[in-house]
Amino acid sequence: MTSENPPPSDLAERALGGANLPLLRGHNAAVLLGLLRAAGEGGVSRLELAEGSGLTPQAVSKITARLREAGLATEAGRRASTGGKPRTVLRLVPGARYAIGLHLDRDESVAVLADLAGEPIAVRRAPLDLGADADEVLAAAAAQVAEVRAAAPGAQVIGAGVACPGPLDHRTGVLHRVTGLPQWDGYPLRAALAERLGLPVVLDKDTNAAAHGLAQQPDGAESFGYLHLGTGLGAGLVLGGAVHRGARTGAGEFGHQVVQLDGPRCGCGKRGCIEALCLAAVAAGEPAEAARVLGVGAANLVELLDVDRVLLGGRTVLADPQAYVRGVAASLDGQLRAHGSAGARTVPVALAPGGAHAVALGAAHLVLASLFASPRGALGSARA
Amino acid sequence: MTSENPPPSDLAERALGGANLPLLRGHNAAVLLGLLRAAGEGGVSRLELAEGSGLTPQAVSKITARLREAGLATEAGRRASTGGKPRTVLRLVPGARYAIGLHLDRDESVAVLADLAGEPIAVRRAPLDLGADADEVLAAAAAQVAEVRAAAPGAQVIGAGVACPGPLDHRTGVLHRVTGLPQWDGYPLRAALAERLGLPVVLDKDTNAAAHGLAQQPDGAESFGYLHLGTGLGAGLVLGGAVHRGARTGAGEFGHQVVQLDGPRCGCGKRGCIEALCLAAVAAGEPAEAARVLGVGAANLVELLDVDRVLLGGRTVLADPQAYVRGVAASLDGQLRAHGSAGARTVPVALAPGGAHAVALGAAHLVLASLFASPRGALGSARA
DNA sequence: TGCACTTTGGCAACAGCGTTGCTTAAGTGG
DNA sequence: CCACTTAAGCAACGCTGTTGCCAAAGTGCA
Question: What's the mean per-residue pLDDT of chain A?
Answer without folding.
Answer: 88
